[in-house]
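Re-run requested by the PI after the first attempt was lost when the workstation crashed. Everything re-entered from the original request form. Ligand of interest: adenosine-5'-triphosphate.
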Amino acid sequence: MSAATLEAPGAALAPPKAESRRAQGRLPLRRLVTRAAALGLGLLAWHLAASQKLDLGLVTFRNVPTPADVARAAWALAHSPKLGAHVGASLARVLGGFMAALVAGIGLGLAIGRSRLAGDLLLPPLEVLRPIPAVAWIPLAILIFPSSEASMVFITFTGALFPILLNTVHEAEAASPRLVASARSLGAGRAAILREVVIPAALPSIVTGAAIGMGTAWFCLVTAEMISGQYGIGYFTWESYTLQNYDDIVVGMLLIGLLGMGSSVAVRAAGRLAMPWTRAGGRS
Amino acid sequence: MIRTALRVVRPARPEAGADPVPAAARPVLAFEGVGFAYDGRAVMRDVSFRVAPGEIVALLGPSGCGKTTILNMIAGFLAPTEGVALLDGRAIAGPGPDRGVVFQAAALFDWMTVAENIAFSLRCAGRPRRERRRVAEEMAVLVGLAGREDAYPYELSGGMRQRVGLARVLAARPRVMLMDEPFSALDVQTREALQEEVLRIRDRTGCTIVFVTHSIDEAVFLGDRIFLLEDIRAGRFERFAVDLPGPRDAPENRLAPGFLSLRETIYRRMRHHG
Ligand SMILES: Nc1ncnc2c1ncn2[C@@H]1O[C@H](COP(=O)(O)OP(=O)(O)OP(=O)(O)O)[C@@H](O)[C@H]1O
Ligand SMILES: [Mg+2]
């Protein structure tokens, strides 16, 4: 686990500092131990609070399962045939929303970043839509889309779109005038400049936006799967609450957290593979 | 052979750095009464000169006098607000691969290897992969980068990056190379090696070069002619012809009497001015 993948979804839109990206590779043993100890302490505190049914007035742990309860519930779910169906349904929705957001975010972002007219036309409506939370989209999504599957994909899409879009716009605008001038004087036309200069230059920032967008897509999953009638980890979590299976709520939460983190890491790794020109320490 | 042709035409007296063109060759490059203003603020007016094929013209002058502006008009990034800038007798309408630009800090494409950077113009022209590779390798040899074709720019030193920038422009076989203080950020040894390289490249390819510099030494070592642009706002500028014996890329030239005296002349002119 690294600092770079711990950021709250949607919170930090700035690319991670080169410093923390370099730290991701090899951590000295002492810091690894410290980090493991921090996790252990967190678990211990949780265990104590839940087993003692700690009641602090403002918050109460009376109905919170202990780590052992959760582990047992997780073990049971792992051996149930439903796990595959839940994870599969959620993965399909998140990936669908994410891929759509990737295409739309990069496409719109390049248009807005490179053309003043496109910026004037597209930015105002997008700025209005941006602050609308995923939950608020639910009724309209149900009305717009004929199938509930499509509306769930749409809601994860709204979550992933803006981080990708904003990171693309920012870098496309910032494309070095010198590089563009060099390319033009070497015979590059508009299309070649976009393909050979603007997009590759923006790619590191797009990958960062995509990793954050992947996180926010998972973030919106529970919301999206409130519509679901059957499968999905978000649905599982929500259903567990209605059925008062408190152990399963935490299992669902942790599962979403782990899958979200894993897929963000996968996006970053794919990005590094696609960009052999960037050093581990960042761009030159 | 281009150089001998020039030497015949070139006047021997330093005060007469006049255009050597009319008799022999048609000018590659010509400014006719060019003026330029940024938002109404005039930088230069009534600038006229002609540059012969294979000639190196060094533009010298204090910061802000308009050297880069002249280069940008030749490159086609800016259009004159008065008069006309001509390439091979035709008005310059925009940037093109017949005029290559090398900037102070090589503006390399970080996402392309050395070979891909060098062959960028061929890629834009739709040349096949084989040919791109072959040209990239040739150019890498020419600028002393053989064997580094598959490196990415981040793996190169500043001097090597400048060489890639040079090779990238050369690969487009430009009629004119425009160089804006390309070596000013480099150490003395690298700078002098690259200056000699530029002279050899001119001899081999016959391309015409307009070279901007702050360094009198660099101007005298590289230039066939030097334009001192101090009064260009008032529509005047001084020209000096460089006359050095023997091969131009010989390092001894830096100590030749002709080199030192011209350097002193220009130095006094600039000091007297300031
Ligand atoms: N984009 C611009 N907008 C307005 N004025 C400009 C612009 N670029 C240059 N100038 C002005 O034009 C004049 C000439 O600038 P130019 O860049 O050609 O100078 P230079 O001789 O290349 O200087 P340096 O040696 O510092 O590079 C300067 O006074 C500068 O302030
Ligand atoms: Mg300049």
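Saved to the shared folder this time. Residues 115 and 215 of chain A are 29 Å apart (CA to CA).
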